[in-house]
Amino acid sequence: MSREVREVLIKKPQAKSWVVAAMAWSLVVAGFGLAALGLAGNNLPPPKFRLTAGGTAIAPVKYPFWRRLSDQIAGRKYIMLTVDDGPRGHGVDERILAILARHGAHAVFFEVCANITSPVQKTQHEITDGGNIIANHSYDHLHLTQLRPSPLQNEIEGCSSRLEAVTGRRPAFFRPPWGQTSPAVLNAAHAAGMEQVLWDTNSGDTWLKDPQKIVQLSLDQASQGGSILLMHSRPTTADALDELLTQLQLRGFRFVLPEANNKPIWLAQNHRTLRWHFRMPSPAQTSPASRGLRRA
Ligand SMILES: [Zn+2]
Q: Quick one: 35 and 87 in the same domain?
């Protein structure tokens, strides 16, 4: 065997092993890099979210590529929790608030204004004090699509005025009862300075009696993130909530609230200040509240 051939036979494996070692190191470095990128988002606050055009889901306002990649690597997802038909009374809202707080979660409470009687009025402050949002679910929980313009306005604007009188803030979000909406309902909500919110994930808590089934139905639907989860202020929901939030967190979900999209909301939220400056009449004097439509 010639000297040249021997050199080639000896050197070639060395060259190969060097390339393999370099590739292995690159993979290790890339792996550590991806893991570090995934971890980097762990302690950051969630991105800001807004409602999508149809109001059935949420989407980030700004989502830089590195942040999206970091969330995908770490399996982080985001969901918006909503609680309808309160205040319920009998301690149900308080139980829900305590469970939310235990999980560091917040929700939007779509309140039926006719339910805000004096015994549960303080609940409204407990909701906002806990960092949650109070929103409009109409005055009497009627089929709004069947109403004429004047009673429709009473149901929507009347409830916003009532919520403002109780909480000091006009609501920025509105959900029609049963999700029944129409161009007239949507226009009335916009005229009152609110965005319409629907949902894409139904916990089934209005018909399911077993808390475990409420948990399972919610988890089955909310797999992708960006969802709006519909729940209600009910004892069964309160029974299911701790397990539901635990399971969502185990699956990488973080709980987010939406940013208000409508520019006039800033003005609406500062309505009290403006009224003081410009001596505007109080909502109680001007409100077209649906006195004739309230439940007995
Ligand atoms: Zn409802």
A: no
